[in-house]
Amino acid sequence: MPPSPPPGSAPSMVERTRPIPTRITDPRSVEVVPLTAVPPTTPNPTPTEPVNIARTPYRAPHPTTPRPVTTSIPILRADATGIAAVRAYEDAPSTSTIAVPVIDIAAYTRSVLDLTMRLAEVIFASGAGAEDATAAMLALTRAYGLRGTEANITHTIITLTHEDQSTHESISRSRDVKYRTLNYAKLTATSELIADLIEEPTDVAEARKRLATIVSSKPQVTLLYRRIGWSLVGAGAAALIGGGPIVVIAAFIAAFVIDLLTTALDNRRVPLFYQTVVGGAIGPLFAAFVPLVDPTATPSLVVVATIIMLLAGVTTFGAVHDTLSGFYLTGTARLIEALLITGGLVAGVAGSSLVLARFGLDLRITADVTPTLGILAIQLVAAVVIVVGFALGTQVPWRALWVVCLLGAVAEVIYLGATNAGFGLVWSSGAAAMGAGLLAAVGARIVRTPPLVIIVCALVPLVPGLALFRGLLQMSDGDINGLLNLLTAGAIAVALAASAILAQLIVQYVWGPGRRLQRRFVGPLMAVPVRLSRKSAAPGPRI
Length: 543
What we know:
- The chain is mainly α.
- The chain folds into two domains: 102-216, no CATH class; 223-511, no CATH class.
- It is 56% helix and 4% strand.
- It has helices at 80-91, 105-125, 130-143, 184-199, 204-216, 223-240, 245-267, 272-287, 290-293, 300-312, 316-324, 328-358, 376-394, 401-420, 424-447, 451-459, 465-476, 481-510; strands at 149-154, 157-163, 170-176.
- It has a three-stranded antiparallel sheet with strand order 1-2-3, covered by helices on one side.
- Strand 2 and strand 3 form a beta hairpin.
- The longest helix has 31 residues, at 328-358.
- The chain starts with 79 loop residues before the first helix and ends in a 33-residue tail after the last helix.
- Its main location: membrane.
- It is a multi-pass membrane protein.
């Protein structure tokens, strides 16, 4: 029997408590589930008497409170298989028993964000719009199992943030895209890699190796051929606006020298404005020698041809695309950049003309040069030459060269037909861009190239370089008519981009479900793959 209490003391009850077990935790949670002590049901129980504790079925609230684990714990690789297992564990019912994958989710998240931002940086720096880069980032992170990801692009800053839905902890990454160059070969290869990773995510390390191979691969054509391509753009522009053989040759040589000097200045990190000032000053120097060879030639056409060559690489299309897609800050910054480049060209042309006048070479560069229609065959050949030169300069994939040449000729035919019918420059440009945009969807499927590459190359002969140059030159002379020319040039640029974007939007909604990657955007996707199929089980071909 238990010993009796000492005399004079109040009788007390000897309590027996159940020992508190060790805490039940989960690798993803630190919450403790304790069991409180329960007093005995009878006073002074014997050691052999059981303790009756009311038991209730265990049900853990999803997903914070851990569930019991009854199976072995596998160790998964930090790839899509591992993160899929983690998400499956989180989505499983609370009554199920499933193995907890042991994986460093934070390290995995950082590696996926880094890979995604590198891919977005490559396509954005190679000529893709902000909407395409943002859609690619969201699609890639979702393919690798990361939910709650936000992506944003502000002109040159790419930001990607992921918030863990269970812990509400955020991991953010940002990259600064300082230099952008049109490289459609790299854009096409990276777009194909993004499509493969979205459809079948591979290990992050393997994907980074494939991206490094694309970035470090040698250019499709050498620097000399790229320089010849830009020279062909200048020569074709001179022929397109009615220049003779001497003017075409002078424009070719001037464009070659301009690209040589601007490339050297760019390698020395000279600001873009001063590069364009130097480029604009080269045109009048070569134009001054044209009357010495052919007095009947118009030297101003050489200057205008070089200006069109320099404006061909301006991101006017991308600026309008970003603005129409809702990226107003990025689009406005690109428009300001285009105006800054054009202002540098005008400053270079005006300064070079004053220097030549001091030496007695009166070079009258007027802003009233009217393009001549000429023979239709000459116009088409000139447009094709411009497209071929631009394709060489921007390294368009060889398999897409014949498509861009064909669509460039088609766009020029539509433009000349509309202008002769009296529709005006703006509506004629819009009609040509609409026709080229609709046909670009077919060509993109045939040659497996993003539609952006085909559309931009086909519309280069229609770039409003002449009207923009004329307007800024008149404004610098104090002529109020220059404002009208500036508005006309802006309207033409908007008509070209808006019509081409509308054509792609119609194709992606009529031909297929449209924007299969992400449906939260305003405009169509033009540089990343889009499935054109209405069946989710059997996806159709992508563009």
